[in-house]
Please model this.
Amino acid sequence: MESPETLRCTPTGNVMDLPGARGVFELNRECARQLASRRTGAPALERILHLPARPLREPGIELPSNVSGAMSPLIIVVSPRRDPELAQALAHGGTSVMQLDLRGWGETTPDMPEKKASFSWDDFFAFRAIELGRPLCGMRVNDLLTLVEEQRRQKKVYVIGLAQGAVIALHAAAISRDIAGVAAIGGIPSYQEIMEAPISREPVSSFVPGALAHYDLPQLAASIHPRPCLISKERLDARRILDGLRLS
Model:
């Protein structure tokens, strides 16, 4: 039998004790910085997100919604959980408001208590989607674009993304000029910020594999201008959102 000392690959048994050792987070951070310096041109978002040639409702995918107010324009609000108080306040500002549940959110949130899962179903399906070659973020962007396509013939459409919905709203507005303006509230400001921090609470579903080789979220925001594009890490009230969308 060999002794523990003999079997150690380093004097202490810990690779990170070696001079100049770097962990996976440091390697990823360095790679992300290098990618940022190489990015040029507009990203082909439809290809990166694996979107269809035109927005289509997928068979079996339900997109529950609730609409308040009857005036034009229409504001579509996307978020993991509905915010009736905010929707009502927005509608009082003179618009109609649709609270839309993208796949896996709101009324379609998985509820399988018999499975006794010790993990987030959102993360579970996000990883499975990556394995299928279609990021969940892209699927939700397609869901949103489908509703925009259906509604734009009747009303001018704006989109508000709350929390994880902010990333979806930004991608959708960068792809479709049928979205007249967008507000991304309470979401991550950039993928690079996630790479710079050793710990993040952002769910896997917000990420697009390979995105940093082509773009980051501030680049999407820049491509939306001159249309209104409001971005805030903090929660804003309805009046400030409407002001940012130039609807007040």
